[in-house]
Design goal:
single chain; about 260 residues; alpha/beta; Rossmann fold; disordered C terminus; L-lactate dehydrogenase complex protein LldE; oxidoreductase activity; Cys_rich_dom
């Protein structure tokens, strides 16, 4: 299958290793991965903060960038949720009926990584090896909008060497919420404090999730505590093999100048 990778602007800028891990994983499973050069932001940040008019050209660019894709896969439940639930609405309200129809068709071909692996490919064991104690945080958009359910957990349980421990109060938000963490920083910090306490109670070496944005938030807090617990994206774990180097810590990616 020829898979178009939607990296997302946050991953491209802050955690490029997540996109690279997604590509390695899909290629290892026998698929051709292409990265459409015109891709940028999906427009979620603008829509969520009330800038719907300004989001129109951004959403239109996304639809056009992936117009010829057979299937689109992204390592972000949040961005895929925006593609499924916001893009066509934004274009239709702007009077772009033709593009709105294209956006709806594109949404049907767009999948979050764990959904693509489990539902489309019918795979849970991807041949990964990751000898660490890991806990999983289900991010809000993947949980409540995309309803990925236990698909990430199915994938993690099949990883050789991985010790999966349940996260207490797993379904509680980590407090990121995009611009919410800036506009409501005190509330966000309080929510993060609760999430970190639950993560640390598991004595896990690694906290994983399907969204780099939430991992950036949680990982930043854990690093300030000098807890020793790292955040690693689900894609990085699934891309790991016995002869591969362990994934880098998501909270402190190397970003070239």
């Amino acid at each position: 299958m020829r898979v178009a990778l939607f990296a997302t602007c946050l991953v491209d800028t802050v955690a490029p290793q997540v996109a690279m891990a997604t590509a390695r994983l899909l290629e290892r499973l026998g698929h051709e991965v292409v990265v459409p050069p015109g891709q940028a932001c999906c427009g979620q940040m603008h829509v969520n903060t009330g800038y719907r008019r300004e989001a129109v050209p951004i959403v239109a660019n996304h639809v056009r960038a992936f117009a010829g894709a057979e299937v689109v896969v992204s390592p972000s439940g949040s961005c895929v949720a925006s593609i499924h639930h916001q893009q066509a609405m934004v274009l239709r309200r702007a009077g772009e009926e033709g593009l709105a129809a294209e956006a709806e068709a594109l949404a049907e071909r767009t999948h979050e990584l764990s959904q693509f692996l489990v539902d489309v490919l019918g795979v849970t064991d991807v041949g990964a090896y990751y000898p660490h104690r890991v806990t999983y945080h289900p991010t809000c958009h993947s949980l409540r909008l995309l309803r990925v359910g236990d698909r990430p957990l199915q994938l993690l349980r099949a990883v050789r060497g991985l010790d999966l421990v349940e996260l207490p109060a797993a379904e509680q938000c980590c407090g990121f919420g995009g611009t919410f963490s800036i506009k409501n920083s005190d509330t966000s910090t309080a929510m993060l404090t609760d999430k970190m306490a639950n993560v640390l109670s598991t004595h896990a070496e690694v906290c994983t999730a399907g969204d780099a944005s939430c991992l950036m938030h949680i990982g930043g807090g854990l690093s300030r505590l000098r807890s020793g617990t790292r955040t690693v994206h689900l894609a990085e774990i699934l891309a790991s093999t016995e002869d591969a180097v362990s994934p880098q810590q998501t909270t402190r990616p190397a970003v070239s100048a």
